[in-house]
Specification:
With 374 residues, the chain is an alpha+beta fold. It is built from ten helices and 20 strands. The protein is globular, with a radius of gyration of 20 Å.
Length: 374
């Protein structure tokens, strides 16, 4: 049995917007609340580009969700009238003895996603910017590419607004009542049939029970200008990741009006989401060390920007979706891989709210503990 009504969504990042998109398709009335402007440049979702992929290492539950994510992205492109995705493929550089490939290859074979090894000799010619010392295996996969978050966010906001979604910008939410279905923002109480908290790194302030399972994590990214001798190689590159104990990072090439970006994928699990987004020397200490290891002639690169972003992460990177009270729903799904799976996150939340799938089942799927999405 399905139900409709008014849903109040706290947070206008990609998780909140994707949930609104899925609920709107089911006939719900929606009001959304954001503490700053819409879109808010401080939100985790606001970025130039993000990786999407089917390859997920040992995270088999999330690999199983990726085909549905790609299908839902295709539906979203139709709705917003634009495709903000570039299918670049992905290349993974593995160093030392690493279990990542076994789980990845098993899942990719099951999903019929092409993947292949690249010899070190071929890699040296194709990726002249990389230091391949210590690299033991290089794998290229299909079914991967680059999403363009800021463009997606803007188009999705415009689409939802044109179809009746009410946005409350500069509304600081001070309290939610998941039993009564109310949101208090700027001193005014708003009432709905359901309340969804999808406030990213601020979610634990409204739902204290999220702590300590999910903690805000301050993460460093750097945007670089490559030297002229490898600029073309970068412009022709896929999305990439270095998978090594001392070199773990992800890399997005400068395509379609974006900059070359390197991100640190070792979670700090510290920080305050209200902090400034300019990365400090401490923030980039590890990433600077990594860049000097993985890039040839790193000193020839120009640093364009050092940025800090926030994710809410658990100790094993699983997503959290669960009922809170009689009328509340919590979404905490931004631990690094949240953007690529956002349409699935929103669809699962909508299924739970509409009564199409049990809350417990959605919680298990969102946590990556179900290997099929029926």
């Amino acid at each position: 049995m399905t139900a409709t009504g008014k849903v109040l969504i706290v947070g206008c990042g990609i998780a909140g917007l994707a949930t609104a998109w899925s609920l709107l398709r089911r006939g719900f009335e929606i009001e959304m609340f954001e503490q700053g402007p819409i879109p808010n440049p401080k939100q985790s979702s606001w970025d130039e580009h993000r990786i999407t992929r089917h390859a997920y290492g040992e995270f088999e539950g999330y690999a199983a969700l990726m085909p549905q994510a790609f299908r839902l992205w295709d539906q979203m492109w139709k709705d917003i009238g634009a495709v903000h995705y570039d299918p670049t493929g992905a290349v993974y550089f593995m160093r030392g003895d690493n279990p990542w490939y076994h789980g990845t290859s098993t899942a990719l074979i099951k999903m019929n996603i092409g993947h292949r090894d690249i010899s070190l000799a071929r890699a040296a010619a194709r990726f002249p910017m990389f230091n391949l010392d210590g690299v033991t295996r290089i794998v290229e996969t299909d079914g991967a590419g680059m999403l363009f978050p800021s463009r997606i966010i803007v188009d999705l906001i415009n689409y939802l607004g044109s179809r009746g979604v009410t946005f409350h910008s500069y509304h600081q939410v001070s309290d939610i009542d998941p039993e009564a279905g109310t949101v208090t923002a700027n001193g005014t109480v708003f009432t709905g049939d359901r309340v969804v908290v999808s406030a990213g790194a601020w979610a634990d302030r409204l739902v204290p029970s999220l702590r300590p399972e999910g903690l805000p994590s301050r993460q460093a990214v750097m945007f670089l200008a490559p030297p002229a001798n490898v600029a073309r190689a970068w412009a022709e590159s896929p999305v990439m990741a270095d998978i090594g104990e001392d070199t773990s990072c992800y890399i997005l090439p400068p395509l379609r009006g974006t900059r070359l970006k390197f991100g640190d994928h070792v979670f700090t699990r510290r920080g305050d989401a209200d902090e400034d987004r300019t990365a400090t020397d401490l923030d980039v200490t590890r990433l600077m060390r990594v860049l000097k290891l993985v890039l040839k002639d790193f000193d020839r690169y120009q640093i364009l920007e050092r940025k800090a972003c926030f994710y809410t992460v658990t100790d094993d990177e699983h997503f959290i979706q669960r009922a809170i009270g009689a009328k509340g729903w919590l979404i905490s799904a931004c631990s690094g891989h949240g953007f690529k799976l956002a349409p699935v996150t929103g669809e699962l939340a909508a299924q739970a709210i509409a009564g199409e799938r049990s809350a417990n089942e959605v919680t298990m799927i969102a946590a990556g503990r179900a290997l099929e999405l029926a």
